Amino acid sequence: MARAGLTADRVTEAAADLADAVGFENVTISALARSFGVADASLYSHVKNVQDLRNRVALRAAGELADRVTSAIAGRSGKDALAAFAGAYREFALAHPGRYAATQVRLDPAVVAESAATLRGNETTSSLLRAYGLAEPDLTDAVRLLRSTFHGFTSIEAAGGFAHPRDLQASWDKIIVALDGTLRHWPASNVRADRDPAGS
């Protein structure tokens, strides 16, 4: 039996792989137990319930995405950093659809507050935008613009929804140029806020 050697980390990793294979919404204790060849009860010493399991997958995925974008922009600045960040985001979303879906789930603030991975990802994004001279509340608005753009494009791409023969990479590159121009000429707000853009 595969019960021997089970740990919370191994269970979470297997759940993340299962999410990529069958969809994050289809990750259940029963489905995961079957993948290990064990009874459902064998997993409850490692995770509390399916919500705890999904939270663990979401946090792991957030950490993996944060590591990718942080590594991608290291030593870069301006449009070069933006393009590297966007490229790493897109590659992760397309290569790991289940993990990516997990990063889009809104978690309990208490869970997020204890996650170094989530905080690392937020700080990487904020640092990228602060380099454009943005501060709150413009920083949060810009985070929402990038997130909406990248999520929208990759979601449509993953679904095969772009029917026009125009090369997707060419469109993506043009979008990055447009975003860079927008960030460089951002209309500054007169109202300042102290809100952290985490979870924007």
Automatic annotation (TrEMBL):
Q: Which Pfam families match?
A: TetR_C_33, TetR_N
Identify the keywords attached in UniProt to this record, alphabetized: DNA-binding, Transcription, Transcription regulation
Which GO MF terms are attached to this record? DNA binding
Q: Which SUPFAM superfamilies does the protein's record reference? A: Homeodomain-like, Tetracyclin repressor-like, C-terminal domain
Q: Where is the HTH tetR-type domain?
A: 5-65
Under the heading InterPro entries, the entry gives: Homeodomain-like_sf (IPR009057), HTH_TetR (IPR001647), MT1864/Rv1816-like_C (IPR025996), Tet_transcr_reg_TetR-rel_C_sf (IPR036271)
User: Is Hydrolase one of the keywords?
Assistant: no
Specify whether Secreted is a keyword of the entry: no
The record places the DNA-binding region at: 28-47
- Recorded protein name is AcrR family transcriptional regulator
